[in-house]
Amino acid sequence: MSAGWIYQVLLELPLAVTARWVRERFQGDDEAWPRLAPHFAQAAGESEYPVRGVVMFGVAECARLRRAAELLRQGDLPGVGELMRISHDGERCFTTLGTDPARPFAVDISDVALRELIDDLDSGDPRRQNRARLERRPGAYRASTEEVDTLVDLANVVPGVLGSQIAGAGLGGCAMILTGKMGPSRHCATACTASTTTPAGFPAPCWFARRQRAAA
Q1: Per the domain annotation, does 14 fall within a domain?
Q2: Structural domain tally of the chain?
Q3: Is residue 117 part of a domain?
Q4: What stretches of the chain adopt beta strand conformation (E)?
Q5: Does 195 fall in a domain?
Q6: What is the pTM of this model?
Q7: How far is 68 from 84, CA to CA, in rounded Å?
Q8: What is the pLDDT of the chain when averaged over all its residues?
Q9: Distance (Å, rounded) from C-alpha 163 to C-alpha 83?
Q10: For residue 48, what are the domain limits?
Q11: Confidence class of residue 198 from pLDDT cuts 50, 70 and 90?
Q12: Which residues does 152 contact at the CB level (< 8 Å), separation at least 6?
């Protein structure tokens, strides 16, 4: 499936749906409703659930996984780090550097933005086509927290850090940081601990560093 085809499909999806809409649309569907009922049967009618951004994040993460495997085989750790930064933007809820307090973060997944991506792919301009590659689009899953966004933003400005992102299933307070050498890991621990023990109330993080052997 091409990225352009996927963007066309995403245009058919609503940005979000309400619980009432889901019930009205699927309650009579004997195949779909048993899977949806545990989530929507008792939900408040106007409770809103994002759709397009979550789907876009999922398909883009699959593309990032394939690309990351290629980059690892090539030994291109900076390329992997860039994908980590893009991936975290798909999970991100706040921008924290240079702002006090943190600002809410949002990815543009509007119809206009998707049509611009389709135009970029059809433009014949390599720079525009690269921008529109599926793995470079973060989507909007938004499973991060302000604390994790802070850790990621602080780590990304430490010299020697190639990329960082939330780790695990989200909301658990974990992030992973990719560095070229072990030295930046210690600098990350110092910088992030100094920030997260401020009156903002974030607990001091625990740090685990592992040196990865070169791929065979």
Answers
A1: yes
A2: 1
A3: yes
A4: 16-18, 48-50, 94-95, 103-104, 161-166, 175-179
A5: no
A6: 0.86
A7: 9
A8: 87
A9: 8
A10: 3-144
A11: very low
A12: 88, 92, 144, 164, 165, 166, 175
